[in-house]
Design goal:
The protein is 20% helix and 25% strand. By secondary structure, the chain is α+β, with helices and mostly antiparallel strands. It has a single domain, classed as Double-stranded beta-helix (4-Layer Sandwich). Strands 1-2-3-13-5-15-4 form a seven-stranded mixed sheet, covered by helices on one side. A three-stranded antiparallel sheet has the order 12-6-14. It has a three-stranded antiparallel sheet with strand order 8-7-11. The N and C termini lie far apart (52 Å). It binds fe (ii) ion. Fe (ii) ion binds next to loops.
Length: 289
């Protein structure tokens, strides 16, 4: 009889438990401190398929967390957030127990889609998680595109959305000069008035799957379309793209890390935790090319 090696005895198999919605899965059996290039590729294939994945019960220092992100691509650009002094790629998503400001990121969006090269991936690490509320909603935009009528698919084909950070981060925006008492380190700026075009229907650069790429947070118009017509269409699409069949509601726990694919998901914060602090650490990862 040969006893199993301790490492074999202790090593848990990697398991993927889908959420039951069209996107979202929980991954057990991975210690994210022990990342390798081959494990990162294995995880990449999983999150490309599941779109958002959660790793509960991780024990990472901020150094380890920032190092972990580097396995998945170059760090993303992070305008309008002041990052941590010793960790230039980590921003705090913070809300204090007694904070009265409007909830941050409650509107649907894909992170920084107003940039020329928006982040492929966002990572969040739950540091302080309230006992109630604070779920994150994800809306599967590949499923939303797939369920569109053929007429609408044809109508959107080849159209470019106009993206801008102005509704949020310009001086007149939601987090601009009128936004007082917020604990997050947001830096609003006139540069948020800039616009950038992206296809309304994006072909995912890694999977080839077609997906809607627009949001009420950052899509302010449609290029070469009369504005009244564009706004009518956008409002119709905003309501459609975040409707129930496409939603996964994610519940947090302390020590949980999530990764999600901004190219095929919109997301939105929810409240319901007044009187409790909430703190997550965010890193964005740029596309590989
Ligand atoms: Fe976000």
């Amino acid at each position: 009889m040969f006893p199993a090696q301790p490492s074999e005895t202790l090593k848990m198999p990697l398991t993927v438990t889908p959420s039951g919605a069209t996107c979202g899965a929980t991954i057990h059996g991975v210690d994210l401190r022990a990342m390798t290039s081959s494990l990162a590729e294995e995880l990449r294939a999983i999150w490309l398929k599941q779109k958002v994945v959660a790793f509960p019960d991780q024990k990472l220092t901020l150094d380890e967390y920032q190092h972990l992100a580097s396995f998945f691509g170059p760090f993303g650009e992070d305008p309008y957030f002041r990052t941590l002094p010793d960790h230039p790629h980590i921003a705090e998503i913070r809300r204090e127990a007694d904070e009265k400001t409007p909830l941050f990121a409650e509107g649907w969006h894909s992170d920084w889609s107003f940039l020329d090269k928006p982040p492929a991936l966002t990572m969040l690490y739950g540091a302080v998680i309230p006992p109630v509320g604070g779920d994150t909603l994800y809306a599967d935009q590949a499923a939303a595109y797939d369920a569109l009528s053929d007429e609408m698919k044809e109508h959107l084909d080849g159209r470019m959305g106009i993206h801008s950070a102005r509704r949020a981060y310009s001086p007149a925006g939601a987090y601009g000069e009128r936004d007082k008492g917020r604990s997050m380190a947001i830096v609003y700026d006139d540069s948020a008035m800039a616009t950038h075009l992206h296809p309304l229907v994006l072909t995912h650069p890694e999977t080839g799957v077609k997906t809607l790429y627009l949001s009420p947070g950052y899509t302010i118009g449609i290029h070469n379309m009369d504005d009244a017509e564009a706004q009518k269409l956008l409002f119709e699409l905003y309501a459609y793209q975040s409707s129930e069949p496409f939603i996964y509601r994610h519940t947090w726990s302390a020590g949980m890390v999530t990764f999600w694919d901004n190219r095929t998901l919109n997301h939105a914060a929810t409240g319901g935790y007044d009187g409790h602090q909430r703190l997550l650490h965010r890193i964005t990862v740029a596309p590989r090319d």
